[in-house]
Automatic annotation (TrEMBL):
This is Alpha-beta hydrolase superfamily lysophospholipase. GO terms for molecular function: hydrolase activity. InterPro entries: AB_hydrolase_fold (IPR029058), Hydrolase_4 (IPR022742), MAG_DAG_Lipase (IPR051044). Gene3D superfamilies: alpha/beta hydrolase (3.40.50.1820). It comes from Hymenobacter chitinivorans DSM 11115.
Amino acid sequence: MAESHYQPDVLGPDFEQRVIEQPADYEGMVVCTLVRLREQAPGPRAVLYVHGFTDYFFQRDMAREYHRHGFRFYALDLRKYGRSWRPHQTANNVRDLAEYYPDLDAALALMRAEGCATIVLSGHSTGGLIAALYAQDGTQRQHLAALFLNSPFLDMHQNWLNRTVGVPLAARLGRWLPDVQLPANLPTEYGRSLHRQYQGEWDYHLPWKPIEVFPVKLGWLRAIHAGHRRVARGLHLAQPILVLHSDQTVTQAGWSEQYFEADGVLNVCHIRELSPRLGPRVTVQAIAGGIHDLVLSRPAVRARVYQVLFEWLNKVLPDLVCQPERSKGPA
């Protein structure tokens, strides 16, 4: 791993980034990018956040909530995503989810070198699937104190025929034809519900997180399917795990107000049913009115998300009570 240093980040003066060079893969040069708050909380508690598919880290408010509760905050833009996507690469493309393990290895090694001793690994959607598999396989899994999974991608949100026949067949073809591209035919309503140019309240870089998700290749589908099969068979994660998800899935076709109060990407029944298979210490809780990325829900809902999260962390990390900083009043 080549030596690098923190540089200013696209999120402004409160954040900085460190680009980490990785060994080249079948598409050429590879990097991942570690982002951190410039002013970190004192102490050994820290979180490493891993984003979802067609995504990157941009949630400033989430970082500040962790800081307010005494956690150092780091986020990782995985290879071929966001800050780490290079012109010669296919966006978001891998052939095996284990390709992400060196990115997590490097991020965790840097965090530990900076004094982080009690690390919570947090993953959203596809990042939740990657985080769970890393906690099972990764070389630094023993340094993870807990996992927080925000609407993890544990199964395809498809009809029964596609899930049981279509996806397995396509995944099998991906072994020999990994570069065959599948059409990007997912609905755009979820993205429209987020970005302030459309119906949402959030501002982020649309070339890195477009309204219409990036197309995928058969090799990527094979990698995801293999991860889903492992979860279905059951993992054996020793860490305490919190899984939060919306209490409902969007059911109406086309645009509707449901996208502001339900998961418009995954089937929440799959998350609820499969999460207990991650290990013996899994807490699963539905968040009423939550959207797919729970921390981007409406203000009252995301406040509830943080309340549940930090109460749970206080419980599973009892010697490290996460009390929020209090605003200083007038003297």
